[in-house]
Design brief:
With about 450 residues, the protein is an alpha+beta fold. The chain is built from eight helices and 14 strands. The strands form three sheets. It has a six-stranded antiparallel beta sheet.
Length: about 450
């Protein structure tokens, strides 16, 4: 039988009570009806610590020592000894997964709005001739096409902020082209690309395309993607003329890109931008090397490469497998592809380039197509709107091999028409490679 609780005031009328009273002298309330105060012992684990079995109420494990200055918080417990140093927590009600990172910044950390309703002109539509800007050499606003842009990047007529250099990028290199766009929902473009042509020792032409997607939940994702694309492209273009096998060159290029991204973690700029719950700079990567008879792809993360034959009666194909939660569920037979990619955890990536990556595992694959075609190298900002190879083939213009720049613009426009929820980047590489100097007609 539990003892009657010790109360200083009646819970009914709040009048003072004398010690040992069974009934309230003011209102007659039966004080024995008040339930006993429960034991103040937590039933949920905190930071992985649980009371020892049989421990009396109120006994808890000794508080762990404070981590040294500069150490990440919370400090990993014994159960986390094999886990990566900075795995991003799963969303509420989702089981934790080692080596998984979400490619979205947690809502509380967003200091910039997601939506910008007033956008620059559609990149697929050539702009009308702009009115002369006020003053010699002035820059004309892309929105109203009349006002002069001030030194801070705003229109003096309508106040519209002008696109930054990376908001929309286009490049044509010989027979291939690439386009990258900020999209309609992000405040900056965190994608990057690099394309180039070279020749093998026997003079055979080779085309190289690298596309990288910065991980939004990381620090400086835009710098990470740019550093990775440049390092990988430079490595491949330098290795091929020396006689390196294209597949080995692609593998080594991904390793070089990883080192470039890792080096950003030690830069002062990373410390300045670092915010709570953000990780080291990180990105995904996908690349293609095309020669006269060989097609090589390499990747880490969920950026993809597709094969679309010129003869559309032949089947297209996806050339890469995502390093993602959804891909793992499908591979394990736990979900079909539609179910997996409909889940909120679908785009949690299990592989990336960055100082806190669980482990670097570059994937490479070699193909020998028996007919001409086009390699589509892209970020998920595009393939989210054309996921299956058949969908990508339907969206890609039939003359993509002859007009890669126009076709890349069409693909970016398709993603923008679909909502443009992410940065969009695509590079188109015709197969087989053609001699340098050939390009869009």
């Amino acid at each position: 039988m539990s003892q009657m609780p010790q109360l200083s005031a009646c819970p009914s009328c709040e009048e003072p009570l004398e010690s040992g009273d069974r009934f309230c002298g003011a209102c007659g309330y039966d004080l024995s009806a008040v339930p006993e105060r429960p034991q103040d012992n937590p039933t949920i684990t905190m930071n992985g610590s649980v009371p020892a079995q049989g421990a009396p109420a109120g006994d808890y494990p000794e508080r762990p020592p404070a981590p040294p200055s500069g150490a990440p918080w919370p400090a990993p417990g014994p159960a986390d000894a094999q886990a990566p140093a900075a795995a991003v927590p799963m969303p509420p009600e989702a089981p934790p997964a080692t080596g998984v990172r979400f490619d979205r910044r947690p809502e509380p950390e967003q200091t910039q709005p997601d939506e910008y309703l007033l956008q620059a002109p559609d990149p697929r539509v050539s702009a009308e001739p702009a009115a002369p800007a006020a003053g010699a050499g002035g820059k004309v606003c892309v929105a109203c096409r009349a006002g002069r842009v001030d030194d801070d990047g705003y229109c003096e007529n309508c106040g519209h902020a002008q696109p930054r250099e990376r908001d929309h990028m286009e490049q044509e290199s010989g027979p291939m082209a690439a386009v990258s766009d900020r999209g309609l929902r992000h405040h900056r473009n965190e994608d990057a690309f690099a394309i180039g042509t070279t020749a093998l020792p026997d003079g055979t032409p080779a085309s190289v395309a690298i596309v990288c997607d910065g991980v939004s939940s990381a620090t400086r994702p835009d710098d990470a993607s740019q550093a990775a694309s440049r390092a990988a492209s430079e490595a491949v273009l330098a290795a091929l003329p020396r006689g390196a096998h294209p597949q080995q060159a692609m593998h080594d290029a991904i390793v070089a890109a990883s080192r470039a991204v890792n080096s950003l973690a030690a830069e002062p700029a990373t410390a300045l931008e670092q915010a709570p719950h953000q990780n080291a700079p990180a990105c995904t990567i996908v690349g293609a090397v095309v020669t006269s008879g060989l097609l090589i792809v390499g990747w880490v993360g969920d950026s993809r490469a597709y094969w679309v034959p010129v003869d559309r009666s032949a089947p297209p194909a996806r050339l890469t497998e995502d390093d993602s939660w959804a891909a793992q569920m499908v591979a394990a037979g736990l979900m079909n592809e539609a179910e997996a990619y409909a889940d909120e955890r679908a785009h949690a990536i299990t592989g990336w380039l960055g100082a806190d990556a669980y482990e670097l595992e570059p994937h490479t694959a070699a193909f020998k197509p028996d007919r001409p075609g086009v390699v589509v190298v892209c970020t998920d900002g595009l393939w989210n709107y054309a996921e299956a190879a058949e969908e990508m083939a339907r969206v890609l213009p039939p003359d993509a091999a002859a007009h890669p720049l126009h076709s890349a613009r069409v693909l970016v426009g398709h993603a923008l028409d679909g909502g443009g929820h992410d940065n969009v980047t695509v590079a188109l590489v015709p197969f087989p490679a053609v001699p340098q100097g050939a390009g869009s007609a």
